[in-house]
Amino acid sequence: MVAGIVAGRLAVVTGAGSGIGRATCQVLSREGATVIAADKNYEAALETIKTHTVLSSQSNGLAGHSAVELDVSDSKSVQKLLEKVRKQYKAPATIVVNSAGITRDNWLTKMSEEDYDAVLNVNLKGSFLVMQAFARAMVIASLPGSIINISSIIGKHGNKGQTNYSASKAGVIAMTRSAAIELGKMNIRVNAILPGYFKTPMVDTVPEKVIQGVLKMVPLARMGDPLEVAEVITFLASDKSSFITGAAIDVNGGL
Ligand code: NAP
Questions:
Q1: Total domain count for the chain?
Q2: Domain around 25
Q3: So what family is this one in (predicted)?
Q4: By alpha-carbon position, which residue is closest to atom 47 of ligand 1?
């Protein structure tokens, strides 16, 4: 078995085919977890498992890492994933990382209802559906666990062109706090991470001029590497953070 701070645990990571989700699979597996990489893009999730994870520990009784196609905004797709985990692993996941997310930026006065709904459906409702499904399984099995929801600094401060995105990410923080209060007695911890700017495909779409403007406000004067937030996520997943719940943790270079 791979030794590490989450050794022998089963983890589900959404948005695992790219950026922060992929880096999270990498660090969780390095720290001994068996990882289920779930993404809308199955090929990308499979690539994460093949090229970014440390070989899983089959000696703890769990099957190895796996990749799964998942649309977090679709409750049927989430239930299918839950069923697959039940059949394949015969144990509930006790680490859940909600990293799937999208942007559909536009000025408030120009934003379509469709773009508003799309962002809320993936970022907020998607995190809700996944959190609800896997928390239920933990409660039924009477197992402690850790759920980490990826919000954003934008959920706290807002941003031009991101009324839909900021609303979704503020919702994630509030939902995290409510879930932490409900699930605390079962020793299921729920925390939110508020990343600043990280080098991922999502941020590749932001114009260079905007990035340079943001970097002037970052005391550490650079963008983050996805592995730097993945380390914090893995700490929250582990028992090293056993007295932290309901928190909204900034990981942003001081922005
Ligand atoms: P990313 O590189 O774009 O990765 C997001 C992943 O989620 C992609 O693989 C995407 O698949 C997948 N996805 C999209 N819709 C989905 C759905 N309905 N069901 C399942 N998977 C879906 O983005 P990232 O930068 O890693 O962001 C990860 C999380 O961190 C997001 O929640 C984001 O809002 C948050 N965040 C990121 C930053 C940053 O600087 N990067 C800052 C603050 C917060 P497709 O590529 O096929 O769409």
A1: 1
A2: 10-246
A3: Belongs to the short-chain dehydrogenases/reductases (SDR) family.
A4: 41
For residue range 82-123, what is the model confidence (pLDDT) as tens digits?
Answer: 999 999 999 999 999 999 999 999 999 999 999 999 999 999
CB atoms within 10 A of CB 181: 12
Write out residues with Cβ below 6 Å of ligand 1: 14-15, 17-21, 39-41, 44, 70-73, 99-102, 122, 126, 150, 152, 195, 197-198, 200-203
Contacts of 47 (CB under 8 A, 6+ apart): 17
Say if 96 falls within a structural domain.
Answer: yes
Note whether residue 253 is domain-resident: no
In the predicted structure, residue 56 carries a pLDDT above the cut 60? no
**pLDDT band at residue 126 under the 50/70/90 scheme:** very high
Ligand 1 closest atom vs CA 21: 26
Distance 86 CA to ligand 1 centre (A): 25
Supply the pLDDT for residue 59.
42
pTM for this predicted structure:
0.97
Supply the CATH number for residue 141's domain.
3.40.50.720
Q: Is residue 128 part of a domain?
A: yes
Domain membership of residue 4 (yes or no) is no
Query: Which pLDDT score, from 0 to 100, does residue 55 have?
Result: 74
